[in-house]
Specification:
By secondary structure, the protein is α+β, with helices and mostly antiparallel strands. A hairpin with a 5-residue loop joins strand 1 and strand 2. The chain has helices spanning 2-7, 47-54, 89-96, 104-116; strands spanning 10-16, 22-32, 37-43, 57-63, 69-79, 119-133. The two termini are 29 Å apart. It contains 4 helices and 6 strands. 25% of the residues lie in helices and 41% in strands.
């Protein structure tokens, strides 16, 4: 399941609404298998970070290479403070979620933009990882 999380970039992040119903959002994420942590970039004013402040229970569902395989990472989420200064710890963590920039001017622009956008990092400390990868014979 950990390899599947590491092989994908997009998943569906589930949080809990105040009504108790799930709220699902497709997100771009990063998986750190060593730390067992999922990281997602968002903005401070979006619904997902606000819900996770109220109820930190979260799950990320990731599709496998076929319809019979998937992984789910469950855990407690924490939401960082918004990036406040280009190059601060939060903006550097957000930078680590990108492929990086060859041009220092592009990196500086990115760091300034995450501050302007009031970007946050959602970190899910994964306590349960489950799923399935069924071997299904191909149809002839």
């Amino acid at each position: 399941m950990s390899r599947l999380l590491g092989a994908q970039q997009f998943g569906v992040l589930a949080s809990v609404r105040s009504t108790g119903h799930p709220h699902l959002t497709t997100v771009l994420y990063s998986w750190d298998a060593k730390e067992r942590t999922v990281r997602v970039s968002s903005t401070a004013d979006r619904l997902k970070p606000r819900q996770l402040h109220t109820d930190p229970h979260a799950a990320l569902h990731v599709n496998g290479p076929d319809v019979f395989s998937f992984a789910v990472a469950e855990g407690v989420a924490e939401v960082s403070d918004p990036a406040a200064v280009p190059g601060d710890a939060v903006s550097r963590e957000l930078l680590s979620l990108t492929p990086g920039f060859e041009d220092p001017a592009e990196e500086a622009a990115f760091l300034s933009q995450v501050v302007a956008d009031r970007r946050v990092v959602i970190r899910i400390r994964v306590s349960r990882l489950y799923g399935t990868a069924l071997d299904v014979p191909a149809a002839d």
